[in-house]
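seq:
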Amino acid sequence: MESSVKLFSGSASRYLAEKIAGVYGKELGNVTFTRFSDGEFQPAFEESVRGSDMFIIQSTFPPAENLLELLLLIDAAKRASARHIVAVIPYMGFARQDRKDKPRVAIGAKLVANLLQAAGATRIMTMDLHADQIQGFFDVPVDHLYSSSIFIPYIQSLNLVNLTIAAPDMGGSKRANAYAKYLDCNMAICYKERKVHNQVARMTLIGEVEDRDVVLIDDLIDTAGTITMAADMIMERGARSVRAFCTHPVLSGNAYEKIEKSQITEMVVTDTIPLKQESSKIKVLSVAHLFADVVSKVHNYESISSNFIC
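struct:
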């Protein structure tokens, strides 16, 4: 007998889960939370999930309670005899902790992978991991989606005849190169030096940007220090305009203020993380259609290769 698809959401990503469910053509399942006076909480599915293919949608941005909520939902689904439990994590928190970059630190991304599997997730669906190799931390299938399938059509719609793709740091050079190859345009790289986390000490530009319309590509923007410094430097080198495309708008601290004061013409982000406030420079493109399509293909055992542009 064919299993049914059931879509559920944690509280942090309900805004996005409702869009995904709407595109998929199915209502979200009902989840209730019992909260105790000391802050402890217990989620419960208010319908039978026995034998179903469950897709639990929850990004794990701070606070850490969002991750714990996802783990409890997965555990509840396992104990309720769901057939498959897919953790749909549009933004995977702790992904920046993918290696030991100094002594006596945790590898948070690996720990999160272990926790998700221990809870009972049989598959992971996520978007633009901070490091591709995090997929190898899992012993279950990982559907790693890319925002390029959303960003590239938008970039093409801008009709920038003198386009240059730029990486705001060396870590993003591979991503920027893939965009540049697909769009058949030039590429530039910003080389940054840091003394402490979230603070850029020095930045150098590699490549020509004079009289060019530059598009900066990144996976996430946290304090916006790097991206705004890169944008201002590019404009100082004679660029005609500079735009920034970022999958995950973490945007902590005074990031919004930095963006407003910078020379960025437009910042395009997705809704994997909800914006904390409005900004005249920030445009949001939804990932709902992409995730809904992949959910359908995963359930029907179809290839998702067509969802990748570059």
